[in-house]
Amino acid sequence: MAEPDPAARAAELRTLLHHHAHRYYVLDAPEIPDAEYDRLLTELQALEAAFPELLTPDSPTQRVVGQVLPGFAPVRHAVPMLSIRTETDTTPAGAYKFDASVRKAAQLTGDVPPVAYNAELKFDGLAINLRYVQGVLAQAATRGDGETGEDVTQNIRTINQIPLRLQGAAPEVLEVRGEVYMRRDDFERLNERQRETGQKTYINPRNTAAGAVRQLDPAITAKRPLSFFAYGLGEIRGWDQPSTHSATLDALAKLGIPVCADRAVVLGADGLIDFHAAMGAKRDALPFDIDGVVYKVNDVALQERLGFLTHQPRWAVAHKYPAQEQVTRLNAIDIQVGRTGKLTPVAKLEPVFVGGTTVSNATLHNVFELRRKGVRVGDTVIVRRAGDVIPEVVGRVGSGARAPYVPNFRMPPACPVCGSTVLRERGGIDHRCSGGLFCAAQRKQALLHFAGRRAMDIEGLGDKLVDQLGDGGLIRTLPELYTLATDERRARLSALERMADKSAARLLAGLEKSKTTTLARFLYALGIRHVGETTAKDLARHFGNIHRLMAASVEQLLEVNDVGPVVAQSIRTFFEQPHNVEVVEQLRAAGITWPEHDGDAPDKGPQPLAGKTLVLTGTLPTLTRDEAKALVEAAGGKVAGSVSKKTSYVVAGDEAGSKLDKARELGVTVLDETGLRGLLDGGS
Ligand code: IVH
Question: What are all long-range contacts of 369-375, with beta carbons under 8 Å and residues at least 24 apart?
Fold first, then answer.
């Protein structure tokens, strides 16, 4: 292949860079990751350096990119807002280079002691100049092109962290420069909300923060959780600036301005390298994104001596870390089944080094998100891995040029792990496996829930043991829990690593004890989606035995107190899975029992007592109190504990007491067991 013509390549790069700068700065809708933009810019810089005749006045390398948006009033900066040189060599060599350049420029010879630097974080957001006049926030402006920015005062005022009035002394003019950014947790929450409401998600905290500040409607800015850190000064009048940068930051903090605590005064290149390494190790744990650290000569007088190199100070540099966003190819989309049964589409990527590790899987969250992003297998996509957040595909490279989105991926109708039906609730976003008890992906979660105090209350079965049982292969299905007592398994149980005989014995005793339970507890323990304790109790009361419940139609389920369509469907689907039914039968075969009755409401039978309230008193000749109650309830009637004017009938047996007197007093009809049976048969 022929070498590309440098002139043609330079022209191509200029067009590309102009396009992406516009997308980024004006539209706040970047199409490529920053690292890719930087790569293109560096390539153009290199070309122009090698072939100076290719340099044009409008080259993106010739200006600080940034444009004043129509809609914001322009603000001319009293002191230009400069940028700093970026050291892209992420190794210690980058720090040595900077220290060497400072020493050379300041003409410090070999035996002069190391230079003191203030090392701080490079926040990833939008640079803002806050102008305080007599201690009051008078104006806030973006950097724009460095000379002229945009007046975003109204928007900045919505950021609670930024004081509207300085604490203590009020200098005549104090311009504080810093970065508006968004914390990672705030960003995740915001995206979670967007996802839940079916709205588009944001790409990364930086773009979101920048976009929020440059919203024309401050009400929208106010809804975005933004934060701020100061890192420098602009114009100052009537304020004694401390003699070092670190003391200046301390002074700003005293005035009530947020200043990041992760900073240090260090000595020489070695000190810089230590800081770079320490923050690199801490980077993932920080609550916000950084893409590097910044080194500044600490002594203000020395800063002044060093001065500027056209647009950048000689006394400061940004030292980068590996990028948190990269482009790579989307090779396939797999399905992962989570502990709770949620199906997540996972991008299988051409492995790429991002955020400090090699990433080959990234989440696509759900099928709606996937569609919104319009990514397809075969696309070149942007992957992001920041902090301990799971890597995600944030979008695809390339503009909207592609015609209507045609998905080449669908959610599977059956769980890839256990084959159970996959269900998406009405109006819901997530697809879920309905094989909760049976599905291997959900086994541990299911076991833990099953054993829980409010469920089967199996003493001695906690987190750690569940892990051991599952990982050790001792339990593959829920009912196998109850076969742990058999000799062979018992031996293996005791052989489990670190499992003392005592805890094995405790578990076996706990299992034995749990076998006698109630239907409500058992139902709750099954972990049917949306069936919490209360619903489980309602279901148990209503159906009385598990077979009626398992056979109940959606319509019949809807008759239960507080059971709506989503819950009813969830129960129905659960029991439609043959594997779930099998597990229930196996558990019962293992000896789990509970008292049963015929249910409050027969699914079809006549309801001769519908709307009637009965009071039972005394001993009936053949029916126990519970049996009589069950019969009344099965016929649609209610059994109350005391007699009132609302009582329809009092059923009295031997040794009936005060309730019988009360019935007579109020003129309520009194029946014996035969009378009751007559009612139940439909007489009146
Ligand atoms: S100092 C003259 N310190 O990175 C020095 N900048 O080009 C001016 N940034 O746009 C910048 N963290 O928005 C400085 N601790 C920090 C910073 C920082 C982030 C941004 C700033 C500027 C760019 C540097």
Answer: 369/195, 369/201, 370/333, 370/345, 370/407, 370/409, 371/405, 371/407, 372/200, 372/201, 374/402, 374/405, 375/330, 375/347
* Residue located nearest, by CA, to atom 22 of ligand 1: 83
CA distance 458 to 462: 9
For the stretch 272-293, pLDDT in tens is 999 999 999 999 889 999 989 9
What Cα–Cα distance (Å) separates residue 635 from each residue in 561, 608, 632, 679? Answer: 17, 6, 5, 9
Lowest mean pLDDT among 191-195, 347-351, 380-384: 191-195
- Most confident option among 246-250, 361-365, 574-578: 246-250
Of all atoms in ligand 1, which is nearest to the CA of residue 127? 13
The set of residues, in sequence order, having a beta carbon less than 8 Å from that of 561 and lying 6+ positions away, is 538, 542
Residue 441 lies in a domain: no
Domain count, the chain: 6
The yes-or-no verdict on residue 269 having pLDDT over 50 is yes
Please give the Cα distance from 554 to 566 (Å, whole number): 10
183 and 301 part of one domain = yes
Residue-level pLDDT at 202: 86
CA dist., res. 321 & res. 34, Å (int) = 13
- pLDDT category of residue 608 using cuts at 50, 70 and 90: confident
Burial class (CB in 10 A: 0-12, 13-18, 19+), 497: exposed
Question: Which residues sit with their C-beta closer than 6 Å to ligand 1?
Answer: 82-84, 120, 122-123, 127, 179, 231-232, 294, 313, 316, 318
Per the structure, the complete domain to which residue 177 belongs is given by 91-320
CA triplet 555, 560, 564: central angle to 5 degrees? Answer: 65
Say if residues 271 and 102 touch (Cβ distance below 8 Å): no
Would you say residue 603 has pLDDT above 60? no
pTM, whole model, 2 decimals? 0.61
Look at residue 201 and tell me if it is in a domain. Answer: yes
Q: Could you read off the pLDDT of 401-443 as tens digits, one per residue?
A: 555 556 678 899 999 999 999 999 888 889 999 888 788 899 8
* 484 pLDDT higher than 90: no
Quick one: which atom of ligand 1 is closest to the CA of 121? 15
Ligand 1 center from residue 316 Cα (angstroms): 9
User: Which atom of ligand 1 is closest in space to residue 84's alpha carbon?
Assistant: 7
Ligand 1 mutation pick, 179, 298, 317, max ligand atoms within 8 A of CB = 179
* The pLDDT of residue 273: 97
Average pLDDT over residues 649-664: 91
- C-alpha to C-alpha distances, 388 to 226, 356, 357, 368, 430, nearest whole angstrom: 20, 11, 11, 24, 23
Residues with catalytic roles: 122
Looking at residue 350, its amino acid is: E
Ligand 1 center–CA 599 separation, angstroms: 71
Phi, then psi, of 256 in degrees rounded to 5 = 100, 10
Judgement on whether residues 225 and 302 belong to the same structural domain of the protein? yes
- 446 Cβ partners below 8 Å, 6+ apart? 436, 437, 439, 478, 527
- In terms of DSSP bridges, do strands 638-640 and 380-384 run parallel, antiparallel, or are they unpaired? unpaired
Based on the domain organization, do 339 and 398 belong to the same domain?
A: yes
State pLDDT tens for residues 367-392.
888 888 888 899 999 999 877 778 99
Q: Which residues contact 652 (CB under 8 A, 6 or more apart)?
A: 617, 618, 659, 660, 663, 670, 671, 672
The set of residues, in sequence order, having a beta carbon less than 8 Å from that of 290 and lying 6+ positions away, is 121, 122, 123, 124, 279, 283, 321
Which of 62, 80, 102 terminates a domain? The answer is: 62
